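For the sake of transparency, this paper describes our internal protein records without simplification. The record that follows is passed on verbatim for readers who wish to inspect the format:
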Amino acid sequence: MVTLDTKQFDNWIDRLSEDKNIQQIKRLTEVISSDAEPEVGQTPKEVIWTKNKTKLYRYQPAIKKTNKVPILMIYALINKPYILDLYPGNSLIEHLTNKGHDVYLLDWGTPGHEDRHMKLDDYIMDYIPRAVNKVLKTSKAKDITLLGYCMGGTMTAIFTSLYPQLPIRNLILMTSPIDFKDAGLYSNWLDKRYFQLDKMVDTLGNIPFEVIDFGNKMLSPISNVVGPYVSLADRVENENFVLNWKLMQKWLNDGIPFPGESYRQWIRDFYQDNKLINDQLVIRGRKVELANIKANLLNISATRDNIALPHQIAPLNDKVSSKNKTLHTVDTGHVSVVTGRKAINEIHPYIEKWITENSK
């Protein structure tokens, strides 16, 4: 039997602690279990208007506001909008404010059980118009730029078509589905012959974030569930990578419930019946016709987006009446269109340049 005296044991522990693989495992464990979460949404802002859970933020640029047309950003009813202001140096909002733009964000807040009857009609007809008017009044501007991301862009397009009398100069949509004829795996999963939509909403009220998140992850389960941890283990010694990994995991796991009646509309009228692109969608008694959109249009799709497929986005350009319209395709995914290296180096500057050129 071989035994180790105290000195030998201490030496063995010292050598073990110096082993690179052990250090990587130790750091990996720390990142996953004990590291503090990074602070997000750090661009200075103030609340200038509220309604129910919703807040309208105005951001304070680092330089004097030099661009006369204010920008109102509208996000989806799922997840939280700080993805647009994720972290200093990795923030679309920060990039725009640093270029002298007057930036506003409509944050829907976290719905409670009492909000389960909220419909898309309510958000589009009651909330967005008041936010637009507040932005125009606050900025003392004659017209406005609207920027919608994901489902928020779909809602923004609907709003713009219903309010052609408002001074909407520019419309920017980022990975926002318009045509739901072929929504990839979602079309299979949400087929009205099998998906018990009414039973789900009537039973749950608001749809839990975990339900939405599970569906999104199942679009590519290996890369979405296992992939992030494999990447972390491989690059855990790179502190910049670790920071970005923690930022994304924080946002991806920081979801909110989907208001029940809005979810019922979103699935039935869009994914199941594809009413929007076919001019059949009715919002509070008013028919939505995308041809009413006349604003300058920048429509952005991502080649590796499996949530809003490129062919769901492109048809909008053929429907609108805009004389100035651009379909811009980028080689990213649904989230990396707004955050990450390519977004920082290419997409944010492209959006800012387009806004500036179309706001003179």
In short: The two ends are 85 Å apart (CA to CA). The chain has a mean pLDDT of 93. The beta strands are 45-51, 54-59, 71-74, 103-107, 144-149, 168-174, 282-283, 286-287, 296-302, 325-330. The chain has one domain: 45-357.
